[in-house]
Amino acid sequence: MSKILTWIKTWKANSADNYKGLFENLSDYWSGYGGLAAILASPILHIAVALNLFFYSVWSQEGWWDMVISVMPNLLGFSLGGYAILLGFGSESFHKFLATKDKNEEQSAFNIINANFVHFILVQALSLIIAALFSSKFLTSESMISTPLWFIGHLFFIYALLLLISTTLSVFASTIWYEIHSRNESEKNQTNTKK
After folding, report:
1. What's the pTM value of the predicted model, to 2 decimals?
2. How do the domains of the chain map onto residue ranges?
């Protein structure tokens, strides 16, 4: 019995630390992304809302979640792989270059790129979770709240797809920064060689 009590005490202590770590990570992501203000001001979200209104005939019918469940796992796997490659891209000096921020900047370029990727992946995961929830048929089309909830659920899907644009532009920006960094390193090496 004492082993069980010891295990429970250890589990409780570790659980509190795990939740604290989770919420700290989410808080870091949220501030790095810019919070609710950044999401609400995003042209990607505005376009997603407009497209979602256009797709009324899709999400107003039962079964719209089947498309989400068939598309999102592949996109999510591809995104996680791309994120891992991005994190490994470039040298240590390039990562330091991206992680450096000027005095007037709140976030480094490295933090912004990471926050964009995390946002992209979290929205995809939420889209998949929401679709799975609706596929359980806890809410039928006869329910008065199905229309607004299905709109929101499908909006996550459209928003996740459109975040491909934003995330792709972040990756593209990192290639430009890599060129700048490489040019600076090359010029520095040429200057050192002349001395």
Report:
1. 0.82
2. 1-33, 38-194
Residue 68 — very low, low, confident or very high, per pLDDT cuts 50/70/90? very high
Residue 157, burial from CB neighbour count under 10 angstroms (0-12, 13-18, 19+):
buried
Q: At what angle do helices 146-194 and 92-99 cross, to 10 degrees?
A: 120
Instruction: Please list, in sequence order, all residues whose beta carbon lies within 8 angstroms of the beta carbon of residue 185, skipping any fewer than 6 positions away.
Output: 93
Q: What is the 3-state secondary structure (H, E, C) of 170-191?
A: HHHHHHHHHHHHHHHHHHHHHH
Tens digits of residue pLDDT in 136-176:
877 666 777 788 889 999 999 999 999 998 888 888 888 88
For the record, the structure tokens of 176 come out as 């430009």
CB 131 within 8 A of CB 123: no
**Residue the block writes with tokens 């609706």:** 134
> Burial of 24 by CB count in 10 Å (0-12 exposed, 13-18 middle, 19+ buried)?
exposed
How many alpha carbons fall within 13 Å on the CB side of residue 154?
25
Cα distance between residue 177 and residue 91, in whole Å: 12
